[in-house]
Amino acid sequence: MNFSKQIISLFTIIVLSFVGHSENGHDAWLRPKKAKTVNVITSKQSPTISIAKNELIQSWQGTEGATVTLRIKRNKSLKSDGFKISENSIQANTDLGLLYGVYELLRRQQTGVSIKEEIINPSYDRRILNHWDNPNGSIERGYAGKSIFWHYGKDSLAVTDGDIKLWKEYARINASIGINGAVLNNVNASPMMLTAGYLEKVKAITEVLRPYGVKTYISIKFSSPSLIGGLKTSDPLDTEVITWWNNKIKEIYKLIPDFGGFLVKASSEGQPGPQDYGRTHADGANMLADAFKPYGGIVMWRAFVYSSNDVDRAKQAYTEFVPLDGQFRDNVIIQVKNGPVDFQPREPFSSLFGALKKTIIMPELQITQEYLGHSTHLAYLGTMWKEFLESDTYQKGPGSTVAKSTDGSLYNQKISAIAGVSNIGLDTNWTGHTFAQSNWYAFGRLAWNHELTNDQITEEWITLTFSPFDVENSQVKIDFSKQDWSNHFLKPVKHMMLDSREAVVDYMMPLGLHHIFSANEHYGPGPWYAPARVRKDWTPPYYHKADSLGIGFDRTETGSNAVSQYEEPLRSEFNNIETCPENLLLWFHHVSWDYKMKNGKTLWDNLCYHYDAGLQKVREFQKIWDKTKPYVDSERFYEVQSKLRDQSRNAQVWKDGCLLYFQEFSKMPIPYDIERPIHDLEDLKISTMKRPLNYK
Amino acid sequence: MNFSKQIISLFTIIVLSFVGHSENGHDAWLRPKKAKTVNVITSKQSPTISIAKNELIQSWQGTEGATVTLRIKRNKSLKSDGFKISENSIQANTDLGLLYGVYELLRRQQTGVSIKEEIINPSYDRRILNHWDNPNGSIERGYAGKSIFWHYGKDSLAVTDGDIKLWKEYARINASIGINGAVLNNVNASPMMLTAGYLEKVKAITEVLRPYGVKTYISIKFSSPSLIGGLKTSDPLDTEVITWWNNKIKEIYKLIPDFGGFLVKASSEGQPGPQDYGRTHADGANMLADAFKPYGGIVMWRAFVYSSNDVDRAKQAYTEFVPLDGQFRDNVIIQVKNGPVDFQPREPFSSLFGALKKTIIMPELQITQEYLGHSTHLAYLGTMWKEFLESDTYQKGPGSTVAKSTDGSLYNQKISAIAGVSNIGLDTNWTGHTFAQSNWYAFGRLAWNHELTNDQITEEWITLTFSPFDVENSQVKIDFSKQDWSNHFLKPVKHMMLDSREAVVDYMMPLGLHHIFSANEHYGPGPWYAPARVRKDWTPPYYHKADSLGIGFDRTETGSNAVSQYEEPLRSEFNNIETCPENLLLWFHHVSWDYKMKNGKTLWDNLCYHYDAGLQKVREFQKIWDKTKPYVDSERFYEVQSKLRDQSRNAQVWKDGCLLYFQEFSKMPIPYDIERPIHDLEDLKISTMKRPLNYK
């Protein structure tokens, strides 16, 4: 390094130190506050209570000089880590309950919500992030940089001071919204995770996360006994195998006495599993569950199974798991994706919810936007998740919502749990897109209380994340009132967020279309994508079934009969084209192009209007965001502005690609009152084959 | 080739033979007609009259079995190749006049215009295409394939049967609109053009063009005497040089007795010229003119001169040529581009028009869309040319339009002439974009009669080019009336054409902006383009002069004083910001961003609205074109549709690039009622540097 480079380097450091105080998103919704003084009285000492106390002192926005009491006191109305709050006191059964109460109190102060005495209990016991992080530091479906747990490159197992700082921040952010578990590695698991070095690192991570109440779990490869244990088989009924797992789990608990358990993807998408040995999912899961029993650990067993032979992938999880109902141990939880196919922009709920009556089920949501524009598109997912959680399964009569059939209200289950596939990476703002933080937030908040409205969640998140009032370093020149800010920032941005998932549905896959992405990247459109050597159920035509007659997957009684997996009256409702909800029409029906829909227009016209509406919505979001400029720091303003521009271009590619492709079948004109495509289909086909749309 | 390949090949040939009859645009506006029978009586035989007779027989749409008389008879009212037509007879002073009369008669039949006895004379004597074709077959600023005259690759000089067929078609199309001259090579001329092989080829071309009345010219390199003649100098006053040119011209006339003359770009943009030897343009041009005198040849001497030192490139042609007024021979014509800079989407007329009072001037128009979207954008240029021709120079009082000051009405000049830089290449449809044919057509028609309206020209062209009635192989299923066709095709398409140049102005360079293209390709936006080593007058900031105060080139009396080159009252009108036409505002003034314009909005807002309006207009064109589908063959429909899509994408890049760049100076928001940019400026800067926008 020569002298001038040193100067520049020094200069960079100075500038960065300064800029480091700007709103780079790293503080997420916990931005440093201009705190008032507060006295905190605690009846007990513990690392968790220390954190709770510190948080109050750092961020108190209540009466200057107030006294707040944190008290552990048994109360039957409080469930697990629930708490009772009032303006000046928090009561809980557990230390963690106190910490959660503190975060609730501070959140209310910061969002201006009144605080009266109130008991607040969690909806689900286990509120878990699933990290699809690989031991080499990459992340499957991660769009915000490399893993925060596993170093990319050679020193995957090193633990640096920087790691510890970052994990602590991570744990704090999670605790602030009630997330109490983290699966530290990809469900497509490496057997190496069970080797000593990795377990030591899991221990190191656990020690940082523990005071914040975030339990650690790992994903395991089912064939680990043969792969790393030197055994000839991994048959779950083989005694050597059983012994190997017993020893391994014992070894883990020796290192980590409060270890959470395993997440298992087995006999699924090429992953080894019990079926390789002629055994059932129950055989596999129970064997592990028995080994965990002495330690209180759990097995989360994924129901994401399908084979290339079946005529309808959407049916297979149900077909495989319903016969096993009642055979699973009480510390096994079947983890089921919200929809029957795979985290699409819109799906009906998976028919397994409510259908497994003697088996614990946990919903698996996807926070990372694998199918909703990665970290480029603004798509608030709370609306999608509420739609899912509030879906009525009718399995125990009307009102048997997915939420109630998984949170313990309807079924007698020892544990309740919910998982979200994380969107977190090493990017400074954790999630790549500032607004993707809102999905992390919404997952945590809904996992804690699935009755919260999206109105409340978004309002909380926007205020905590963007309000320039009473925060350090907001960098916004405040020459407006709180009311102005609410009118010109909070309200329009909330509107944008609440509309954003439907916009994605519209420009990607309206009316029940699903899985029409190009290739494996799951970003750009590819309804045409069908290379000869690719499994049919991995190509879009398998799902959209467009032909000269119409479009859509016939899952009625005369089709694949997937409707039969739903309880009445849903079964009949879905089965009948006239009663099937139009936003799921092409999920359940193959519909003729000129089918008259409820608005009197043909299916084809409706399809066109939806695609165009999606694009117009994104353009509207651009206008909304551009107008917020005076109310937001320039760093986040330009970041979001730029991403909305990408989204707008992408939405146009989606609209053009899908309409031009489907038009080859419909042979009908795109209604002349909507904007014409600006791309040619052949160009789009070539470019989506060559490289992902989001690759600059 | 194996058997199956042979089969495919055979199949391809069959299909192509069939498709060969489709509307691929090669017939331009002379599509084969379902002719009625006609008797043609001629008083004379000649190759030209044979053609005239044949045209009538091939395309007659008048009364079945009518008799038409073609008669050569002196008539003082007929100028040069003018003619007198009636329903059944054509009279002219020349054979070519008869041919022109035939084309006029047929055009009227095909466009349904009534034919009464009428004398029709040309506005300009010489109506010349300038081909910027290089001897190696490439074309400077050519966007429709390689040269039709010079083969690309090794056999540049070969003359094939295919060439002769193509040249004949070319000559016929030109004759049909009155074009009577062609400069066969680039103004940036190779000295090789004067060598025997090339002259032989010029002769071959001339022989094909001659019966159609298309005279040939060539561009020459001024330093040819030293480059290929073995002389030590090319000084125009040097006797050896004079002798060399005399001999060369004699040699040419021996081969081609009716040779037209030379086009000369000298002492311009690095081309050698008389100034290299301390001589004037007059010295150079007159030396050549003297050599041509005995043969009736002419010298077209270009006034496109500017040096990098001057503060205002727009002033230089005037500064250099006005002092020479009166010094040029009467067979020298100064060829002047319409605008003072260079074929921009909108410029004021060049101040030389009307100002050279004792020198013949010919306007040089550019048919090839160097600065208006190449062969990708639909831009009908007739509107631009009429705006130019009708501009009042005031040089001989009000009404001294450019047209009148060049066609011989105002000044006593032996010859009148007009040139258009051709957009023709080897593409099947000649011009790349079907609608670019309309510019070839409009140039010819206006050169013949500059009083034609664009309404008439476009209506003629659209009807001749697209009408499915009474033509062979139209491939359009006619289930509509002529009136329907007029309402649903002719009128909307005409509207689109008439609006198209203003659309380009709007999305590229509204309000008098000019020359803000990226790099040398002259296609995409590059207001930011200013590499350190590039001449300042070859970079956009030289022209737009955007800064924190405002934007535009101050050419007022207190600026570069280019206004002084215009005659009153124009000088004062341009000089005063309040009276300067708003569509030339930034050409003449550096205007503050917040300057209130006539509509009450700021300059910045107006700039934004113009850029957006340009984009919206292109989107409107897409709608218009998409609706024409039932009325046009699919080959041309999809070709134009696809190009409009490109244009729409490009217009968005232009809008975004220019607004985002200029916003860095204006620091004002883009009005919130218009669509937001979808590109980021930095991306556009990088991509326009890396590759042209039109490169797929």
Structural commentary:
The structure is a homodimer of 696-residue chains. By secondary structure, the first copy, chain A, is of the alpha/beta class. Chain A has 3 domains: 31-121, Chitobiase, domain 2; 126-452, Glycosidases (TIM Barrel); 505-553 and 590-690, Alpha-d-glucuronidase, C-terminal Domain. Helix content of chain A is 38%, strand content 10%. Chain A has 20 helices and 15 strands. In chain A, helix 8 (281-292) links the parallel strand 9 (261-264) and strand 10. In chain A, helix 2 packs parallel to helix 3 (95-111). Chain A is globular and about 75 Å long. Residues 1-20 of chain A have low confidence and may be disordered. Chains A and B meet through helix 18 and helix 19 of A and helix 17 and helix 18 of B.
Indicate the mean pLDDT of chain A: 94
Structural class of chain A: alpha/beta
Determine the fraction of residues in helical runs of chain A and give it as a percent range: 25-40%
Largest sheet: spatial strand order of chain A: 6-7-8-9-10-11-12-13
Q: Show the largest interface.
A: A-B, 23 and 23 residues
CATH architecture of the largest domain in chain A: Alpha-Beta Barrel
CATH superfamily of the largest domain in chain A: Glycosidases
Number of helices of chain A: 20
CATH class of the largest domain in chain A: Alpha Beta
Main sheet attributes: strand count, strand direction, barrel closure of chain A: 8 strands, parallel, barrel
Quaternary structure classification: homodimer
Beta-strand percentage of chain A? Answer: 5-15%
Shape of chain A: globular
Estimate nothing, just give the exact number of structural domains of chain A: 3
Whole-angstrom Rg of chain A: 26 Å
